Amino acid sequence: MTKIIKTLTIAGSDSSGGAGIQADLKTFEEYGTYGFSALTTIVTMDPDNGWHHNVYPIDAAIVAEQLKTIFAGGPVDAMKTGMLGSVEIVQVTEQAIKNNRQTNVVIDPVMVCKGEDEVLNPESAHAIRDLLLPLATVVTPNLFEAGVLSGLGKLSTIEDMKEAARLIHELGASNVVVKGGKSLDGDQAVDVFFNGSDYTVFTADKIEPATNHGAGCTFAAAIAGGLANGLSVDEAVAKAKDFVLAAIRNGFAFNEYVGPVFHGGYRLEQ
């Protein structure tokens, strides 16, 4: 029998299916891996209140029990984190990574829900910076998150993104991808990858309409899937970019508020 490749997501639930553990597990499946999940938060969206998000953290002790269950089989081939929800959950995640000598760690430092613009929990953001970035094989902040982690605030140019990536690398992350996506002005979606010595700028034409709900979660999960399959970090990031672009191209309008990516898009286009 072919060796089973194992991947793990420690993240929140998005009941609309585009982001969170739902996105991660679908992506892991597309990469031919067996996905484990430890649920950290439950997020609901209210269609009667402009799609406002409500976030309900799971007790950290329950997150720890989930991780104990998962790691009973030993380390996985790669893992990623998403929305963690509290300082205590960040601490539980840190200890699970250290205690199990887990490698191939992708940290997606989720600080806001799409459509929201305030850090859900500033103390958790600080804990991610101090406890998880030094353990990260790759960290994948968006512009807002990169501005917070780097201390630079609002990022509006590629040079800003490069400087943020450099500063985040100094915090301990081995590799940094700052996701500009469609947020920069112009016709191009731009991401900046920094491996500690060299920058790679990824560009692609912006896709309209932008059915991109879950793109960030999917991107981090795809990097984890690539690493689990033995790709180098550079290869895993490049393939994840292609995977997410295909997922956005094949996305759909869920309702008047959100259009999720379709996680099978890359396979359908091959």
UniProtKB/TrEMBL annotation:
The keyword Hydrolase is annotated on this UniProt entry: no
UniProt catalytic activity: pyridoxal + ATP = pyridoxal 5'-phosphate + ADP + H(+)
Nucleotide-binding recorded as keyword: yes
Domain Pyridoxamine kinase/Phosphomethylpyrimidine kinase: 14-261
Keywords from the UniProt entry: ATP-binding, Kinase, Magnesium, Metal-binding, Nucleotide-binding, Transferase
GO molecular function, one term: kinase activity
Name this protein carries in UniProt: pyridoxal kinase
